[in-house]
């Protein structure tokens, strides 16, 4: 069956359970939803605004049978084209905004359509926050943040989505649901797809059996890295369901649809200070970053929470008036009290003395 006929067949079946106001096939809205924050452009043939897991499962079953590609979209703030398609685009935004905060405020369960900044607003009264902090956090939604492993300057590798993720509810390409945080869901999945679980375990054991490869993977993810599929779970976790859940991070929707995620929250220190530090050249700036990374408090936590380097061209692009040929490091530190914050500033200042 040629692609146009398969698209027509998909549309006919989808229209049986998706209201017509949530299905777009007109040129204008296909053009609009085919645009994200990047400079790539593809026009989807069908745009569907999904409302729940049951709809997603049915849509994937149909698309899988008709061999039609599906792309998921949340806010569309990515700069790299993850949210565009020339086939079927399924939007998970408006109807995917439910959440639940644990009694101790240490965990939060989120659907993919909640904006990152909204999560911080929900947690702020409890002195907690959403760990990933991409520059687009005021617009980006949880689904895109987690599935693209969007992080930001402050969460680095110690508090990105992979490190704070506890469990995930997902729907595979064949429509099969799985909640990795639910024992019954895990049991049912294992009984229905034993070969799937066995293959995950085989990959885990194969990777761990190659010491050189295992060490290379550990090193690859010891520095900030969001390139390609996430291989770290195969050396970091034993349980195949933990491997599945953490493999979702950075998969950009290619492995499954993320319908819900439970993550650890982190402390939102009330006292913060930032400074733009200027150096004569990039070598000196890099030496300063290495020096600041060694600074820890009595709890073994990094004192410098973020350090972002701006070379001479970056500074000249914004007409920085400080001087010619300089390199800057935008630095941030945080504390629970003004006294603690001032102490950290003093420690950083002392460490950077020539």
Percent helix among the residues? 25-40%
Distance between the amino and carboxyl termini: 72 Å
The parts where pLDDT drops under 50 for at least 5 residues are none
Mean model confidence by pLDDT: 95
Query: What is the CATH topology descriptor of the largest domain?
Result: Uridine Diphospho-n-acetylenolpyruvylglucosamine Reductase, domain 3
Strand content: 15-25%
Rg (CA only): 23 Å
SSE-based structural type: alpha+beta
Q: What is the C-level CATH assignment of the largest domain?
A: Alpha Beta
Q: Which strand order do you get reading across the main beta sheet? A: 5-6-10-8-9
Number of domains: 3
Order of helices and strands: HEHEHEEEEHEHHEEHHHHHEEEHEHEH
Shape-level CATH architecture of the largest domain: 2-Layer Sandwich
Largest sheet: 5 strands, antiparallel
Choose one word for the global shape. globular
Number of DSSP helices? Answer: 14
| Count of distinct strands | 14
InterPro entries: FAD-bd_PCMH, FAD-bd_PCMH-like_sf, FAD-bd_PCMH_sub2, FAD-linked_Oxase-like_C, Oxid_FAD_bind_N
Pfam families: FAD_binding_4
GO biological process, one term: lactate catabolic process
Keywords: FAD, Flavoprotein
Characteristic key phrases:
354 residues, alpha+beta, Uridine Diphospho-n-acetylenolpyruvylglucosamine Reductase, domain 2, Uridine Diphospho-n-acetylenolpyruvylglucosamine Reductase, domain 3, 3 domains, five-stranded antiparallel beta sheet, four-stranded mixed beta sheet, 14 helices, 14 strands, flavoprotein, FAD
């Amino acid at each position: 069956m040629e692609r146009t006929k398969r698209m027509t067949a998909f549309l006919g079946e989808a229209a049986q359970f998706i209201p017509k106001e949530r299905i777009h096939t007109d040129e204008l809205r296909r053009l609009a939803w085919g645009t994200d924050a990047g400079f790539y452009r593809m026009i989807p043939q069908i745009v569907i605004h999904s409302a729940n897991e049951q709809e997603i499962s049915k849509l994937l079953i149909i698309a899988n049978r008709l061999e039609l590609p599906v792309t998921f979209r949340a806010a569309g703030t990515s700069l790299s084209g993850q949210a565009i398609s020339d086939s079927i685009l399924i939007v998970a935004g408006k109807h995917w905004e439910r959440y639940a905060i644990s009694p101790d405020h240490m965990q939060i369960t989120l659907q993919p359509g909640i904006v990152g900044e909204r999560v911080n607003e929900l947690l702020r009264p409890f002195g907690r926050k959403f760990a990933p902090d991409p520059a687009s956090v005021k617009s980006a939604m949880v689904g895109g943040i987690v599935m693209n492993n969007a992080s930001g300057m402050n969460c680095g590798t110690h508090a990105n989505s992979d490190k704070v993720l506890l469990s995930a509810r997902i729907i595979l390409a064949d429509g099969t649901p799985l909640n990795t945080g639910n024992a019954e869901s895990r049991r049912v999945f294992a009984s229905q797809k034993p070969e799937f679980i066995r293959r995950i375990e085989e990959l885990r054991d194969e990777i761990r059996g190659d010491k050189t490869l295992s060490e290379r993977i550990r090193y690859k993810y010891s520095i900030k890295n969001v390139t390609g599929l996430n291989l770290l779970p195969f050396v970091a976790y034993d349980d195949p369901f933990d491997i599945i859940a953490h493999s979702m991070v950075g998969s950009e929707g290619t492995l499954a649809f993320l319908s819900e995620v439970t993550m650890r929250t982190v402390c939102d220190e009330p006292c913060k200070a930032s400074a733009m530090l200027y150096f004569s050249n990039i070598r000196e700036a890099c030496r300063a970053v290495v020096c600041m990374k060694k600074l820890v408090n009595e709890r073994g936590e990094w004192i410098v929470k973020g350090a972002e380097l701006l070379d001479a061209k970056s500074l000249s692009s914004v007409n920085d008036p400080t001087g010619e040929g300089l390199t800057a490091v935008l630095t941030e530190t945080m504390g629970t009290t003004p006294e603690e914050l001032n102490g950290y500033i003093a420690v950083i200042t002392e460490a950077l003395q020539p």
